[in-house]
Structure formats: structure tokens, C-alpha cells
Amino acid sequence: MSKVSEPIRVGVLGARGKVGRAMCDAVEAAADLELVARIDKDDALDTLVATQAQVVIDFTHPDVVMDNLRFVVEHGIHAVVGTTGFDEDRLETLRGLLADAPQVGVLVAPNFAIGAVLSMRFAAAAARFYESVEVIELHHPHKADAPSGTAYRTAGLIAQARREAGVGESPDATTAELDGARGASVDGVRVHSVRLAGLIAHQEVLLGTEGETLTIRHDSMDRMSFAPGVLLGVREIAARPGLTVGLDPLLDL
Amino acid sequence: MSKVSEPIRVGVLGARGKVGRAMCDAVEAAADLELVARIDKDDALDTLVATQAQVVIDFTHPDVVMDNLRFVVEHGIHAVVGTTGFDEDRLETLRGLLADAPQVGVLVAPNFAIGAVLSMRFAAAAARFYESVEVIELHHPHKADAPSGTAYRTAGLIAQARREAGVGESPDATTAELDGARGASVDGVRVHSVRLAGLIAHQEVLLGTEGETLTIRHDSMDRMSFAPGVLLGVREIAARPGLTVGLDPLLDL
Amino acid sequence: MSKVSEPIRVGVLGARGKVGRAMCDAVEAAADLELVARIDKDDALDTLVATQAQVVIDFTHPDVVMDNLRFVVEHGIHAVVGTTGFDEDRLETLRGLLADAPQVGVLVAPNFAIGAVLSMRFAAAAARFYESVEVIELHHPHKADAPSGTAYRTAGLIAQARREAGVGESPDATTAELDGARGASVDGVRVHSVRLAGLIAHQEVLLGTEGETLTIRHDSMDRMSFAPGVLLGVREIAARPGLTVGLDPLLDL
Amino acid sequence: MSKVSEPIRVGVLGARGKVGRAMCDAVEAAADLELVARIDKDDALDTLVATQAQVVIDFTHPDVVMDNLRFVVEHGIHAVVGTTGFDEDRLETLRGLLADAPQVGVLVAPNFAIGAVLSMRFAAAAARFYESVEVIELHHPHKADAPSGTAYRTAGLIAQARREAGVGESPDATTAELDGARGASVDGVRVHSVRLAGLIAHQEVLLGTEGETLTIRHDSMDRMSFAPGVLLGVREIAARPGLTVGLDPLLDL
After folding, report:
1. What CATH number corresponds to the domain at position D135?
2. A59-89 residue pLDDT tens
3. In this structure, are residues A192 and A180 in contact, taking their beta carbons and an 8 Å threshold?
4. CA distances from B41 to B27, B34, B35, B68, B86 (A)
5. How far is it, in rounded angstroms, from Cα D73 to Cα D69?
6. Domain residues for C22?
7. Number of domains making up chain C
8. Quick check: A219 contacting C, CB < 8 Å?
9. Of A75, A78, A139, A218, which is the active-site residue?
């Protein structure tokens, strides 16, 4: 990493939420970043201007995030956004805002865990070389949905890669199945969801062909696992004007 | 292991079948065993007497195994049996035969892979100390049934151990499930069946409680994985008159 | 679990330390236990008598633990002790104290993580059935010692079990080794220590023989992983007068 | 895969060796390939011309491979080569031969297992995003060298990727190490070599940063695991005139 004469000036929106506090800690711990503003719902966004923030991190709420982004884009501040609720309409609105501020960059990502993003990318890249592929995702037992959102996306990317390469479905001679044993089918890819006390968030993609298997496993031990991805975004977003969706483009694979 | 002055004299029934040939090889490779008879369907059982076999290994067919056992028990020869099809009726018949030959031992086991037997035993022993338990079994894609027979038995043993200890079902907050994602329920224990080219036969029992997990995994790489269990049976059966069902009692855990 | 008419009355010594606070939380969360006293270094032990504590949990310091135990034993209170520093001299002193209070039980254990204890037990039980065994332990990179204490003990128990069964060393044809590649030798058992950011405390025992392997893996995700073992001790110690060393006897395997 | 009007005509050199026989079987099992010549040391290379072979597979010996390649290149036949012993001199000679036959393609690869190649590639791509990385390779106990050649190359590629990104060494606070516990250092990357009966050839790359880990594991179950990589080479080499070293360029990642 090249020498940085001046640290990047960072503001955190949603600074008193659980994730926001973690982001403040992460920014303060990074030598090349300076935390200049902690903003929560009762605080004025003007503080960002007064403190000369260069990049904001937004983990707030779908109800307020668009107002936040309008403000920062208009004031020439870049943004790294983990708030949920970005459908195509919202992304289109965001592109409109950015058209008027061609030097500003905004990164919106559904998942900032670098390992989750790399896992998906590697699984998709490998999928066409293997006869078989299945996904096992494993989470704590308080999770309401099965499969996880990440597993859905992983299976979708795998299925797409295999279709594009003309690879058929994974072979399966099962004729006698106890209901549910073979998992759920997401776009033709089998996904198994384990729920176990003691676990946090884990996923394994298994790929196999005659005589060999390849396994790509991601283990997320705590909520801080997205911090390195957010900081990567903070460091890179100034060099990427316009809208960037997902962490992938920054990984430069 | 104590010194053995004389090797044990072993006959193999079903000696020209795939498993039988493997058993002959395994006996020949063992310094403390001597292969004295290879019997297949056109060969006379009298050869066992003529060659003074002390123990037979029977991997034949449900149609002939009872005749084989009648012969060897009557001639005072011990038997280690991997042939399938032993229901309670057959075991009862066998107990009757052995009642008239109190010095003869017969071992009938559905699974001679020591690792499979140990896995089940350990899983059952650990099950009551953990809030959650699930089973993942992974096999080649030519397998017709899901879950595997071993996974059924493992889940059954786990469920029984938990009931006896008064432990309830594993916690699970799933409210939105894509059909099959959470696997099959075997006696209240979730079982997931993966089918993947490149795999052979594998099983993982996952146990979890607050802050920790325990995983017991068995990998069977080839058909020879039952050989050490059969040879253990051959060495021990003379010291165990009567009927022994399953390899467990010999493992002395 | 049978119905408990009255909760067990528990006192925690070292109640303001990190571990002590966690223990207080765990006791309060358990329906069959009642936290009656939180004692730290400036508090009088008499409180235990005044609050009619039946069992104490002691995670204090080697300098004070013996005084604590003298007091509770003399007052007929059982103890579950995780404080370190118990050599044979101290255990002997403790046995002496208990000789005068035959109804009191004290449990001293170096490791209360049930999974760690089960792993060691299972590894030792399986060790004599396999040609090969190696241990991989994986921890966060702030750990000063390699291998971990648990890995030392695991390897020692494995080596002892193999010696008693007359099993020789694991086969190894290595003739060209880059220094350190084959790990450390603990009592003839190879142990490999991985240090990796993102990990907490994990251990894998790999056992293998022709055609099959058995893996016993323990993952400890946070400091709370010892709580279930301590609570097990609290519930069982009244039924075990005298000194009990290690959690094993309570697991009833 | 697009429709192939005519199967590719394939000759196998070293056809009676263990690997060569496996290659013949693999070619015969592929619908889009036709095995037209099986050549071993006493057979004339002219057969390749007579049978109009388009591609040869060469798993022979360092002593004869250069003569084989001279012949096939001169006769306009492409080659996929797994024979060992290609140093820079030999590759240079090969480039010279190919300069005179600009339409011919030759692929020389040290490792045709697609999973091994993908593992190395993914590990190198991910290495700069993680604080820590270590390699565990696990093999059968008859292996003479530790670490394996694949582990050496994997560690080398990881080290290079980290140097290029300016990432320092993995953190390690070990101050008390039993000799060998922390593995071997290959170019600054720790490598651990497990040797265990029942295993074949396996490798795990572990990458970790605060709160998350990524694991890339490759399991090779039998000698046939290189077949899909060789067949991929056979299908693609006609479209890649000149010398290609390693399977990587064909994977198009």
C-alpha cells in the first residue's frame, strides 16, 4: 500500500446503531482513516460539511437513506452504503442524482463480507468445470429464513454460469427420498440449510467430478466480518465516480 | 497384542465375489491369520472341515447364508457374517442353532466399517450434552436412497439418547422455508443428503450448544474400509460364544 | 431431567471478573439454579452462609482459591472450581480438607468446555483402531504457545491409549522434509498448530486406516463455551462427595 | 457445448503405462473424442500419421518426450503433455520447433487436476484481502516429500500475490513453540503436512481476517482426477497455436 499523506475524512451515518458503532470503531482503528462525524437520527447532516467529511458510511434505514444520499451527493461527498431496501427503482433514482455530480462515487452493497463475495465469485467461476455442485449453508437457530439470502444468490450465480457453459444439471440417481433429504432446489442447484446452536453464519459450496472435489467454505464468526469490506469501499470509492453495485468490482479479480 | 503361536485358520465363503476376493486378500495380508479355504457357490462346504478352518467369513447371499451357518455351527466353526437380510426371525433361528453348540460364536453385523460404528457411538454419547444436532451424509450420485441407511441409524440412536436424557428437540426458528431446505426429519433429527460426483461415502454429525460445536466426520474412501472390522471380528469371535449382533460389543468402548 | 422442586442456591466467587460475570449470567439464565451471592475480593465469604448457598463456582486466582475452598468445605458448601494452579500438592491438601467433611463435593477441572473433554475422550477411545493419527489445532494469532495445552493433553491421551493397545507409531515415509513441515512430535503423535486471524479456538483429531478416516473436530466460538460444563458441575456435584478432578467422570460416557 | 459434427481423433503415447491406460479409457468414454492410436515404446510413431490423429496425449518419459514432440509437431499434430522434466531449456527448444509450425498447439502442464489449478488460482486471488493465510496439505503416508509440490507452488503464488499488494506477513504471536509445531515456512507462508493412512491427496488453504475465514479445499480421490483436465486440453489445444504452459490459460477465469 502506497504512503498516504493525509487520512481520509470519514463520517458515519447511523452512528449509534449496533452496526454504526462497530463501523466507528473500525474507522478509528484504521491508521489511514479519520472519523470526523458521528451522525444519528437527531443530528444535522450539515455536520458532514462542517467537518469536511470526504466519505460517509451509511448503515441507517430504508426510510431515510435516500435523503441522506441526496444530501451527500449534492455536497460532493462519496458514500458507502450497507442500508437495505435498494430495488431497481431506488438504484435508478441514485443514478439520476449522480448524473448531476459526475465526480462523486456511491457504492451500494448487499453484503460487505469480502469472504462471502469471494466465495460466490469463485463458486461461479468453478461451476462449469464440475459435473456436480451443491450448497450447504449453516446458521444459528434463530434465523427465520431457509435458505439464507447469500445461499440463494450463490446458487443463482452457479446456475447461471452452468447454463452459459452448456453444463446440465448435477447427476442424481435418487429414487427413494425421505421428504426433504435432498434439500431445496434453487434454480436447479440443491441447497441444504443447517440450523445449529453455537454456529454464526457459514456456507460451503461443494463441487465434484470424477475423482476430485473442490470445496469453498466461508465462516463468518461475528458481526464485524463486514468491516474490512466497508473500509475497502471507503478507500476505493473516490476513484470510482458514479454508482457501483456490490463489492465485486472493487475486488479486481 | 500378545504373541500368537499359531495363526487363526480362516475360510472365506463367497470367495469369488467382489467383496469375498477383497476379504481373501485382507486375510492373506494379515500375519496372524491363514487363509485355508476359498469357497464359492459350486464348492462343497466339507472343504472347511477338511482344511480345519476355525473361523469363516461369510459375504454371500440371503438365500444361502442360513444353510452356510447351519453347517459351520454344527461343525464347531465360528462365523463372521456380513451378508444382508438378517431380520429378527433369522436372528432367532440362529440363536436356536447356537444353543446346541455353546462353544461356537457367530457375529452378524450390518456395517463393518469401524469408523462408521465409532461415529454412531460417539454421536449418541455426545447427543445429550448439546442443544442442537443435525446429520449431513454425502455420497456419490449413483445412490438410490436418501438418506443413507447409516444416516437413518445414526439419527435414530441420537434421538433415542436425547429422549432418554430428557433433552428436547433442537431449536429452530425457521418460519420461511423453501421446500426441503431444512432436510428430512428422522425421529426428530434433521438429516441432509448430498449427492456429488467424486465423493464415495461420508457422514458428518454436527452438535452445537452456546459458543461451541462438536463435529464427528467419517470418510469412507473405498470398499476396503470394512476389512479392518471383519478381521477384528475374526480375531475376537472365538472368545465370544453365542450370537453377537453388530460390531459395537467388540470395540470395548 | 426430573422435576426440581427447589432451585439449587449458587454463589459465584470472582463475580466481577470477566469469567465470573459470565458465570453469573449463566446461572441467572438457568431455571433450575438461583444466584444468591456474588462475591469478589473485597467481599466477606460469610455472605455465602447468610444466603444459604449450596454450591459455589470459583473462577478466582491461585493465591486465594485455597482459602476459599477451606471456608466453603468447612461450611458444608460444594464447589465447582475453574481457577488454575492445581498441582498434586494442592489436590492432596484438598483431599485432606474433604476427609473431614465427607458429605461435601469439590470438582476441580482444567477445562470445562464439554466439547473439548468429549473430543479428547473420543480420540483416545478411537486411537487404537487406526494405523495413523495426527492432531491439528487452530487458534487466533495472539496465542503465545504452540501447540495449545489442549493439544498436548489430547496427544498424550492418544499416545497412552495406543501404547496400552500395543499399536505402534503412525506410518510415515517422509525422507525429504522442509524443516517443520511434519509438525511437532508430542509423545510420538504429530501435532500441527495453525495461527490465523478470524479464528478463535479449534481442534481436529484425524484418524486413518486403509480406506477410511475419522475426524473429531471441536470449535469453540467464544468464552462462554465453558458455561454448560460449569452448570453441569453445579447440578451434579452434590451427588459426588469428595474430590473429583476433571469433567470426565460427570459425563458418564 | 456446441454440436460437434466429427469427433476429434486422438492418439495416446505411453498407452500401456498406468496413466496411459487410464487416458485411453477416458478418451473412449468421451462422445466427442475418438481413440485412433495407442502407442507405446515399441510402436512406430508413423501410426499417428496413418490413423490421421489430430491430437496426441503424451504421458511417457523425459527421455523420449522430446523426440515424440518433434515428430508430432513436424506432422502438424497437436499435443497435450503430462510427462515431467520440462525445464526452461526444454520449453525453449519446444518454442523453436513450434516456430516452424505456426498452426500447431502444444500444452505442457505439471498438474492436470482442474481442482488443484483452480485452488491455487483462487488462493492467490484472495490472498491480498486477508491478514493471515496458511496451507495444510494432507496425503497418504507413503509420500516421501513434505510439503508436497503443489503446496510449494500454492504457497509461492500466495506469497507473490501478497508482496505485489504490499500485504505483510501473517501475524503470529508465538513465543513458545515446540519444534515444528508451526509448520514449515515457504516464502513466508506457513505450510503443514499431514500424513495419514486412508488419505489420498488433499489440500486446504485457510485465509482469515477479523471475524471471518475463507477455506479453499481440494480433495483428489484417485489417479483419474487429472483426466478431465487432459480432455479439456485435447478439446481446446487446436484453437491455441504455439506453446501453452499450465492448464490455467484454458480455464479462462
Report:
1. 3.30.360.10
2. 999 999 999 999 999 999 999 999 988 999 9
3. no
4. 20, 21, 18, 11, 20
5. 6
6. 8-108+224-250
7. 2
8. yes
9. A139
